[in-house]
Specification:
This protein is about 55% helix and about 10% strand. It is built from 9 helices and 3 strands; from the N terminus they run αααααααααβββ. Strands 1-2-3 form a 3-stranded antiparallel beta sheet, with helices on one face. The chain starts with a helix and ends with a strand.
Length: about 180
């Protein structure tokens, strides 16, 4: 199948898919191929239909939820996307992608306390400090937000490590702290 054709309208691609369907009508691979085509053509409704079908056939899959969340994010249905990402994390907590996607959505919504709440779990599961990735341009508002103040403390006994003390305040709540180490 010609991938270039898939991206340029897809007549040859669809013809090859149909031939494959005729030869192997029960092969679930065809749905994966059609899903790829739907994503390439940005046919969100078709992609969601295929994802639902695949999900039923395999009895549920966390990554399919991540894919659906991506579509709902494109459709500007952020709440649905967040719910799907939470379900994906719940179903398979060791998959890193939904954490980053939900952080991006929370950052966009300026829900900084929810971003910070994910840090300890990510630190433990993936041995990374998510704050390390949020120091780049575009996140200034996060670092300056009322919900969060960040203090960088160098640890002289461990020159390769930088410890982060992240303090965040919630209205009418006691100040709490979490510590993360990054390499």
């Amino acid at each position: 199948m010609c991938i270039r054709d898939r991206n340029e309208g897809g007549e040859t691609y669809l013809q090859a898919v149909n031939e494959f369907k005729e030869k192997y009508p029960k092969d679930p691979l065809i749905e994966v191929i059609l899903l790829d085509f739907a994503f390439a053509q940005q046919e969100h409704t078709q992609a969601l239909t295929i994802l639902d079908s695949l999900d039923k056939k395999i009895g549920g899959d966390a990554y399919l939820k991540v894919m659906k969340a991506t579509i709902y994010e494109d459709l500007k249905k952020t709440d649905v996307a967040v719910d799907l990402l939470k379900e994906a994390i719940s179903a398979e907590s060791t998959m890193e992608e939904p954490y980053w996607k939900i952080i991006a959505l929370y950052m966009e919504q300026k829900k900084y306390d929810k971003v910070v709440a994910l840090f300890p779990q990510m630190q433990e599961l993936f041995d990374i400090n998510p704050a390390e990735f949020l120091v780049y341009d575009g996140y200034d508002e996060f670092w300056k937000s009322e919900a969060l103040s960040l203090i960088h403390i160098s640890e002289p006994t461990r020159p390769l490590y930088i410890s982060y003390a992240v303090f965040y305040l919630k209205k009418k709540r006691v100040l709490t702290s979490q510590w993360w180490c990054m390499r």
